[in-house]
């Protein structure tokens, strides 16, 4: 059981794991052991609420394919278990990120005082620059 939030959990069988060889330098150990973990999650076939599915598919993230699958590859560690755990944490953060709704912005007007202070500051700056000008060249 994978806990996304207080109300949302996923079954372990909804995640597909593949273990592949890591790329990069590492020598003999790297060439013979499949330590990189690749997590594959089908959004459309999952038990997530519809709002989560819609937001995940609409999210602009390189880990989400056009066919509606999340693919997270982790090869940071030399340990398969550590890479699996890191990929799972990234997956939980990704899915949980679409659960938060942004607060609606309320349009406001600047106060009279703030407008007056802004204009006064602009006048002061202009006066300072006017003092720097060489008036003899006119």
Give an overview of the whole structure.
The chain has 138 residues and is an alpha+beta fold. It has a domain at 2-97: Double Stranded RNA Binding Domain, CATH 3.30.160.20. It is built from 4 helices and 5 strands. The chain has a 3-stranded antiparallel sheet, covered by helices on one side. The protein has a two-stranded antiparallel sheet with strand order 1-2. Strand 1 and strand 2 form a beta hairpin.
What attributes characterize this protein structure?
138 residues; alpha+beta; Double Stranded RNA Binding Domain; three-stranded antiparallel β-sheet; two-stranded antiparallel ribbon; 4 helices; 5 strands; elongated; Aminoacyl-tRNA hydrolase; ribosome binding; Pep_chain_release_fac_I_sf; translation release factor activity; peptidyl-tRNA hydrolase activity
What's the SSE blueprint?
Blueprint: E1 2-3, E2 9-10, E3 15-20, H1 28-32, E4 36-42, H2 50-58, E5 69-74, H3 80-97, H4 112-132
Structural class: alpha+beta
Order of strands across the biggest sheet? 3-4-5
The pLDDT mean sits at 88
Question: What is the rounded distance between the termini?
Answer: 81 Å
Please report the first level of CATH classification, the CATH class of the domain at 2-97: Alpha Beta
Number of strands: 5
How much of the polypeptide forms β-strand, as a percent range?
15-25%
Percent helix range: 25-40%
CATH architecture of the domain at 2-97: 2-Layer Sandwich
Listing every helix as H and every strand as E from the N terminus to the C terminus, the arrangement reads EEEHEHEHH
Our count of helices gives 4
Overall shape: it is elongated
- Sketch the major β-sheet: 3 strands, antiparallel
Taking all Cα atoms into account, the compactness measure Rg is 27 Å
Low-confidence stretches: none
CATH topology of the domain at 2-97: Double Stranded RNA Binding Domain
Protein name: Aminoacyl-tRNA hydrolase
Keywords: Hydrolase
Domain Prokaryotic-type class I peptide chain release factors: 7-132
Family: Belongs to the prokaryotic/mitochondrial release factor family.
């Amino acid at each position: 059981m994978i806990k996304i939030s207080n109300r949302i959990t996923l079954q372990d069988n909804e995640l597909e794991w593949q273990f592949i060889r890591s790329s990069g330098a590492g020598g003999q150990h790297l060439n013979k052991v499949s330590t990189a973990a690749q997590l594959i999650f089908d959004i459309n076939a999952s038990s997530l609420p519809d709002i989560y599915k819609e937001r995940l598919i609409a999210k602009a993230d390189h880990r989400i394919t056009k066919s509606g699958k999340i693919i997270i590859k982790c090869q940071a560690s030399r340990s398969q278990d550590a890479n699996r755990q890191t990929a799972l944490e990234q997956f939980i953060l990704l899915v949980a990120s679409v659960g938060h709704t942004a607060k609606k912005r309320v349009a406001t007007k600047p106060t009279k005082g703030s407008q007056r202070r802004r204009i006064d500051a602009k006048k002061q700056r202009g006066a300072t620059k006017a003092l720097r000008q060489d008036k003899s060249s006119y």
